[in-house]
Design brief:
- By secondary structure, the chain is an alpha/beta fold.
- The strands form two sheets. The protein has a six-stranded mixed sheet. The chain has a two-stranded antiparallel sheet with strand order 1-8.
- Helix 2 runs antiparallel to helix 5.
- It binds uracil (URA).
- Uracil binds next to helix 4.
Length: 241
């Protein structure tokens, strides 16, 4: 391991997306979803039921390898859902999504948007860690996807942000590269008779850590600005790069 590289990345990460201020007295908006007829406590109960099903799940080989399941967490009325690929070592140890280095960077992206982690919902395509952080296998995705589909259906966000190629390709049912998918809104269909949900694909924060260029950072920030505009939220001012 290149210790200098890790130390440099850590320092850079500390600065990344932390140079934004929010103009005026902006407060995170009330999380509301007027089309839903379920109460928040009913939604929480349903989300807990899904988490319990995930805890019991042995549909694929990952079930016997995990330390903890990582069903996802956040606001049951979130306007934005961030979807990653699958838990890594830190997530597997804690049973929570995006708590390692990629998660710290995601926290900064969320903060740069003027939001808190509790405003959004954070989940993954896979609910259990693939060994050695290998890519999810098609059979694992097929087994696991119904849990995420149910979570999306319940939360019914206005925008899904797919982090990285695996999340974007799975949710959009395409093989296109992330470079082609990112930066524009796509449509995610959560069920017959339901209007499509806008989906923005962007780079995964783990990819960003490995490819930490100003261009890639700018691209992610541009993608997030489009999400904020779509939601009618103010775009926090960037005071330094
Ligand atoms: N990467 C992911 O895709 N998901 C996590 O929860 C953490 C890292």
């Amino acid at each position: 391991m290149d210790i200098n590289k890790v130390a440099r990345q850590h320092l850079e990460m500390e600065n990344f997306f932390s140079g934004f201020t929010i103009k005026g007295n902006f407060e995170a908006p009330e999380q509301q979803n007027t089309e839903d007829d379920m109460t928040v406590s009913e939604k929480i109960a349903e989300l807990e039921k899904i988490a319990e099903e995930v805890h019991q799940c042995r549909k694929c080989g990952l079930g016997s390898l995990r330390t903890n399941t990582v069903p996802g967490e956040g606001n049951p009325n979130a306007r934005i859902m961030f979807i990653g690929e699958g838990p890594g070592a830190d997530e597997d140890a804690q049973g929570r999504p995006f708590v390692g280095r990629a998660g710290q960077l995601l926290d900064k992206v969320i903060a740069a948007c003027g939001l808190k982690r509790t405003d959004v919902f954070i989940g993954n395509i896979l609910k259990c860690r693939p060994p050695d952080n290998r890519d999810p296998r098609p059979d694992e995705i097929i087994s696991c996807l119904p849990y995420l589909q149910k979570q999306i259906e319940l939360i019914n966000p206005e925008v899904i942000v797919a982090l990285g190629a695996h999340a974007a390709r799975t949710l959009l049912n395409t093989n296109k590269p992330i470079g082609q998918l990112r930066g524009q809104f796509h449509e995610y269909y959560s069920g017959i008779g339901r209007p499509p949900i806008k989906l923005m694909a962007t780079y995964h924060t783990a990819y960003l850590l490995r490819n930490y260029s100003p261009e890639n950072r700018r691209r992610v920030w541009e993608d997030m600005q489009k999400v904020l505009t779509e939601l009618g939220l103010p775009i926090p001012e960037q005071t330094k790069g």
